[in-house]
Amino acid sequence: MSFELGIDDLNDLARGAAVLGTGGGGDPHVGRLMVENVMRSTGPITIVDIDEIDDDDFIVPIAQMGAPTVAVEKMPAGTEPVAALRAVERHLGRTATATIPVECGGINSMIPLLVACQTGLPVVDGDGMGRAFPELQMKTFAAYGVPGSPMALVGERGETIVVDTGSDDKRMEWLARGITMRLGGAALIAEFTMTGAQVRRTAIRRTLTLALRIGRTLREAREAHEPPVTALARTIAGTDYRHLRVLFTGKVTDVERRTDGGFAQGRATFASFESKSELRLTFRNEFLIGEVDGEVVCTVPDLICVLDADNCEPITTEGLAYGQRATVLGIGTPPVMRTPEALAAFGPQAFGFTESFQPVEERIPC
Amino acid sequence: MSFELGIDDLNDLARGAAVLGTGGGGDPHVGRLMVENVMRSTGPITIVDIDEIDDDDFIVPIAQMGAPTVAVEKMPAGTEPVAALRAVERHLGRTATATIPVECGGINSMIPLLVACQTGLPVVDGDGMGRAFPELQMKTFAAYGVPGSPMALVGERGETIVVDTGSDDKRMEWLARGITMRLGGAALIAEFTMTGAQVRRTAIRRTLTLALRIGRTLREAREAHEPPVTALARTIAGTDYRHLRVLFTGKVTDVERRTDGGFAQGRATFASFESKSELRLTFRNEFLIGEVDGEVVCTVPDLICVLDADNCEPITTEGLAYGQRATVLGIGTPPVMRTPEALAAFGPQAFGFTESFQPVEERIPC
Predict the structure, then answer these.
(1) Considering CB atoms only, which of A159, A161, A175 is closest to B159?
(2) Within the 73-112 window of chain B, which residues sit less than 8 Å (CB to CB) from chain A?
(3) Tell me, what's the ipTM?
(4) Residue of A162, A168, A170, A191 best to disrupt the B interface, most CBs of B under 10 A
(5) Nearest to A13, CA basis, from A27, A32, A26
(6) Which of these, A210, A244, B101, B296, has the minimum number of CB atoms within 10 Å of its CB?
(7) Interface test with B, best of A164, A177, A180, A191 (most B CBs within 10 A)
(8) Cα–Cα distance for residue pair B29/B44, rounded to 1 Å
(9) What region holds the S-Me-THD N-terminal domain (chains A, B) (predicted)?
(10) Does any CB of chain A come closer than 8 Å to the CB of residue B363?
(11) Rounded to an integer, what distance in angstroms lies between the CA atom of residue B39 and that of residue B110?
C-alpha cells in the first residue's frame, strides 16, 4: 500500500535502517539530517507500493557508495544524488518515473528520499538487498538478471562519471570502486535502472515499511519500558524475515579496523557477560560472519546486528569501540535471498569464506 | 598542405614519432603494426592540413593512456579507439568530422591513423603537445582554453567510461588515471573534443609531417652513410623547433624505474665516453630534465631524446638498459609551447621541479 512519509517518520526509519544495515550501509543519521532539512520546505513524499507501479515505468535506484568510515566524515554537498539521476537519464535518453533504494540499510534508505524531496519523484517501497551489502553486484536485481550498467557516479565537486561494463557487474564494481576511491572514498551513484516490471520481478518488497516498523518497534518498546529485543522479535516474526536469534551478549574487547581497497574491513571481538565465551565478527563494511568460540553462528545473507545493550540503538562497524556493551542479533533473510542464484551473488562464499550458508534458525534452534 | 599517407610512410613516421616521444608516449612500433595491418585492406588515409578544416568541424582527438611499461606488454584489442570516439559522439550528440593526435610522439601518433583506417575520417596534421607529455592536462589545447571534458575511456573488454569534470582538467587526469589503473594500466581515450576553429587556435601545426620528416631524415642519412645527428639538426633547423644540441654521448650505467601511480617513473645515469662526466635523466613516462654533473642542461617542454649511438634509433624510457651506448639530444620546442600559459601547464615546475625553464639553445650556446 502506498503512503505519505513525513518528517516525523524519519527518526524511526533511520533507526530501522541502521538495524537492517547490519553494521554497514553508512550511518543513516547523516542522511536523515539531509532529508529532514530539505523536507521541511518540500513537505512529505510518496512511498509507492511495488504492486502500484506500471510495467513500463522507468525506475532509477540512487545510493551512496564508499567505505562507511569515510562517508561519516565526508559530507555530500547534497546535489550529487540528483546529478547522478540526471546523468543516467541523459545517457539513456529516458526520464525517471520513480526512484528506489538499492539497499534499505544504512544511509541508503535515506538517499532516495532526498532525491524524492528534490525532484518530486515517488520512492518505490522495496530494495535490492533487504539489508546492506558492500559490493554493487550483491543485489537481487543482479541475481535475477538486471544489469547494473550503465551507472553514474558523482563526486562532491560535481565530477560526473558514467560507467558501462555491459552485463559484467563485477567489472562495474571494480571500476566504480576505483573511481570512488579517487573521488575521496565516497560517491553518489545511480545504477541498475529498471522498468517497473523488472522491479516487481527482482526487488525485495516493502523494506522501507519494514525499516519504519523496526524503528518504531524499538522506540515504542523503550517508551513502554518493555524489552526491545522481544518486541523486535515479534515484529520480525510477522515479516518474510521471520526469525530473530540473540547470538551473544557481551562487551567489545577488541576491534581491528582498516579502510582498505575502498572498504572498511576488520574484525571485532566480544567477551560474554556470563561466561568465558567469545564472539568474533568479521566485517567488510557490513558484518559478514559471526563465530562463537570458533563455531559459526550466523553468516550472510542472514543479518548480524549489533545493538547497544542498554538502549538497543544499532552500532555500525565504524562506530564499534572497546568497552561497548552489546546485544548481537541474527535475523533471517527472506526466502528470495536464500535461493541458489542469490547465494551465488551474496552468500558467504561470494565473500571468500569457505563456510556454506545455513539459515540462522537452523544453526540456532529456538 | 593535405596529403595521403600510405603503408610505405609508416616506418618513417613511427621512427620520427619515437624521437618526438622524448622517451615516452608509448613505443610506436606496436601502433605501427596495428595500423599497417588494417591499412593493408583499407588503403591510404588523408592527412588534412589545419588551414583546410572548417571552423565548425567537430574534431575528436583519440589516444592511448597509461604507463608505457604496461602499454608495451598489454596489447589493445584494436576496437577500443573507435569505441572511445563513438562514446563521446553519443554523449555529445555530435558526429566527428576528423580526428587528431593529442601528442605526435610515441604510439599516439599512430592511434588516430588506426581510427582513420577504421572509420574513413581524415586525420588533422597537428597535435596538442608537439612531443609527448605524461598527463592529460599538459596540452596546448588546455593551455589555450579548450576543456578536456567530456572524455571517454575504453578498456580491452569494451568497458566504456565517460568522465566529465567541467573545466577542471587536473581533476579529469586524476580520475582518468585511476580508471586506467583499474583497467590494467592502459586504456584508449577520446578527449578535448573541439571545433575546427578551436583546433586552429590551439594545436601545434604539421607535427605529423614533422614526425615523418624526422623519421625519413634518419633513414636517409643512414642509407647515405652520413652522420644522422647532423642531418637531423638540419631538418629541425627548418622547423619551429629550430635548435638541436647534443647534450651527452655515453653509456647507460644505471636505471631506476618503477611503475607507480599509473606512470613509468625513474632516473637513468649515463657515463661519458670521453671524460668522467655523468648525465642524469629524470623521467615520468617522458624524459623531463637532464643534468650533467649536477648542472641542468635541458628541461621540459624542450625535448630530451635518447638515440642509440650506433644506428640513431630512439630509445624509450621503458627500453633503457645497462650498457646501452647513447647519443642524448636536446631539441627546442616551438614558441607557442614556451609562453607563460604553456609553461604553467607543462614547464618544469608543473612537474614539481624547482628549476625554471630556460631554452636549451641558451643553456648550451652553439
Answers:
(1) A175
(2) 91
(3) 0.88
(4) A162
(5) A32
(6) B296
(7) A164
(8) 19
(9) 8-164
(10) no
(11) 12
Residue B167: give the domain boundaries.
3-205
Contacts 24+ apart (CB under 8 A), B350-359: B350/B138, B350/B300, B351/B284, B351/B288, B351/B289, B351/B300, B353/B288, B353/B289, B353/B299, B355/B289, B355/B296, B355/B299, B357/B299, B357/B300, B357/B301, B357/B302, B358/B296, B358/B299, B359/B243, B359/B302, B359/B332
Query: B44 and B126 share a domain?
Result: yes
| CB proximity A298 to B under 8 Å | no
* Contact across the interface for B175 and A183, Cβ inside 8 Å: yes
What CATH number is attached to the domain comprising A317? 2.40.390.10
How would you class A8 by CB atoms within 10 Å of its CB: exposed for 0-12, middle for 13-18, buried for 19 or more? exposed
- Looking at the complex, report in whole angstroms how far the Cα of residue A213 sits from the nearest Cα belonging to chain B: 40
Judged by a CB distance cut-off of 8 A, whether residue A338 touches chain B is no
The answer on A175 and A232 residing in a single domain is: no
Nearest one of A311, A295, A315 to A364, comparing CA atoms: A295
Rounded to whole angstroms, the Cα distance separating B345 from B348 reads 9
Q: Is residue B72 part of a domain?
A: yes
Burial A344-366, CB ≥16 within 10 A → b, else e: ebbbbebbebeeebebbbebeee
Q: Is residue A16 part of a domain?
A: yes
Looking at the complex, report in whole angstroms how far the Cα of residue A231 sits from the nearest Cα belonging to chain B: 47
Total count of domains within chain B: 2
Q: Residue-wise pLDDT tens for chain A (366 aa)?
A: 899 999 999 999 999 999 999 998 888 888 999 999 999 999 999 999 999 999 999 999 999 998 877 877 787 888 999 999 999 999 999 999 999 999 999 999 999 999 999 999 999 999 999 999 999 999 999 999 999 999 999 999 999 999 999 999 999 999 999 999 999 999 999 999 999 999 999 999 999 999 999 999 999 999 999 999 999 999 999 999 999 999 999 999 999 999 888 888 999 999 999 999 999 999 999 999 999 999 999 999 999 999 999 989 999 999 999 999 999 999 999 999 999 999 999 999 999 999 999 999 999 997
Question: A297 and A195 in one domain?
Answer: no
Whether A266 maps to a domain, the answer reads yes
